[in-house]
């Protein structure tokens, strides 16, 4: 695509130079010839580029379709050092337990020290390897200090799971500026601070995997969680941007990115979920959500919507006109109701 654009630009510049030369050297043959040769050359390049693009698009589409039918083998996480934020509760805790069972060394971070230590103790009791660190991921200093301790005591991590998140549920006008700042500090800025610490390590090692918890609310916004939705859209933007930057010029082929968009998970985060068709889009258990996330990590998927039905509905609805989308959302009547804490 980029090569195509550059070629088109080159072509236009060449035409411009040719026309200027033509203006100035009406009676002079050699510059005119050079101009014509360059235009022909650039045009041939452009045609080749375009044909190449069409073939690549067809091949990659077929490859993607084939991968749905026959998924590639899952990568092993044995020996990987996985850092998980918000490991003391909910999805983070379940990810820690399941990844440890698969043979990964798990580094658990949470602001809630007691819960975090419980996750670590449970993993160790099962014979897994886990290390616990109290960390407020909204604090750059705390993230830096804890990351240095991890480097010293455990080693360089190879998988980063930015999971910690909060979700106050109330109408937008009831959110105080402090609420909004806190949501962005935990749900968005913490991702930046962790990435600032560990992405350079991944780049130096030439490998690594970044996993970020967005939400279905990061794809389809809903009421009572406006700042939350905005924060989860931001996570998606952060991840998409990083994917583009890291792959530019084929520079970091072995650094993988997975952005996760779960529907409601039964962790207590969404205290009053409103679901009209629970058989179509059921509330997930943290166990099921963690299984699906780990599978996406092992398959190195760049984006995963959980459950699969949510992915299917989203895929169909997003191509519909905006007013039809709204009608569909009204019909589904799915979201979260306001609650106090
Ligand atoms: N539960 C859902 O329905 C659902 C749906 C979609 C996306 N998600 C996302 O999944 C992630 C995990 O959600 P969950 O349901 O497991 O939440 P949870 O409340 O069960 O667990 C979140 C954990 O993050 C920790 N945490 C909060 N602030 C922190 C901070 N400043 N520093 C360090 N740790 C902090 C908490 O102590 C807690 O242990 C969140 O990012 C959430 O937005 C959840």
Automatic annotation (TrEMBL):
Record keyword Glycoprotein present: no
Transmembrane parts of this sequence: 6-21, 33-55
GO cellular component, one term: lipid droplet
Swiss-Prot/TrEMBL keywords: Lipid metabolism, Membrane, NADP, Oxidoreductase, Transmembrane, Transmembrane helix
InterPro entries per UniProt: NAD(P)-bd_dom_sf, SDR_fam
Keyword Flavoprotein included in the entry's annotation: no
CDD domains per UniProt: 17beta-HSDXI-like_SDR_c (cd05339)
Subcellular location: Membrane
Major place of residence: membrane
Top-level taxonomic group: Eukaryota
GO molecular function per UniProt: all-trans-retinol dehydrogenase (NADP+) activity
Recorded topology in the membrane: Multi-pass membrane protein
Family matches, as PANTHER family: PKSB (PTHR24322), RETINOL DEHYDROGENASE 10 (PTHR24322:SF736)
Described purpose of this protein according to its UniProt entry: Catalyzes the reduction of all-trans-retinal to all-trans-retinol in the presence of NADPH.
Family recorded in the similarity comment: Belongs to the short-chain dehydrogenases/reductases (SDR) family.
Name of the protein this chain belongs to: Short-chain dehydrogenase/reductase 3
Organism from which the protein derives: Penaeus vannamei
